[in-house]
Amino acid sequence: MIGIAAVGRRIHHPTANTIYLQDTTLDTELSPNTWTHTRKTNPGGELDCLAIDDQGRLLTIEVKPADEMGTGAWAPAQAMIYAQLFRLWIRRNPELARSTLQTMADQRAKLGLGAPATLSPELPVVPVVAFGAPTADQAHVHQQAVSRAKLVADALRRGSFGAPLIEWLRVEADGTAKPL
Questions:
Q1: Is the Cβ–Cβ distance between 90 and 123 less than 8 Å?
Q2: Which one of 88, 110, 116, 175 is most buried, counting C-beta atoms within 10 A?
Q3: Bridging pattern class, strands 167-171 and 125-132
Q4: Quick count: other Cβ atoms within 10 Å of Cβ 27?
């Protein structure tokens, strides 16, 4: 996988505000719980990581620390928002989107920041949630954080959102990503 965007890139688009978590459908899908009050009502406006995997898919990755118990649960919704924004851009201007994304990937490879990557002809966009690998002290909290995030992902899929499947990664201390 090659990353092609830095952390903290601000995204401004009205779609992000209209399709996020203010829909009451999510309330009916998630049982009120001691942690559901942490629900975010805006996507945060920042994509953590944009990458191309070895299949040529564009990945919109939301990254959380191993023990993130607050906002970590809502990472699936954030990843889905960013994936939808990229899909919208690709639909509206496929040539520009493909050219821009491929140029970014090529520049990173030229600088030695990753292996060469090529976008697939279909240009699929996949939402991904990545949690840091837990230390021994974080293992229990990490398990709870991931469980909460997966509950939200399932609720979004069951609700009226038409949510795509989320892919899950674990980021090791050396920066490599593995399936979670």
A1: yes
A2: 88
A3: parallel
A4: 14
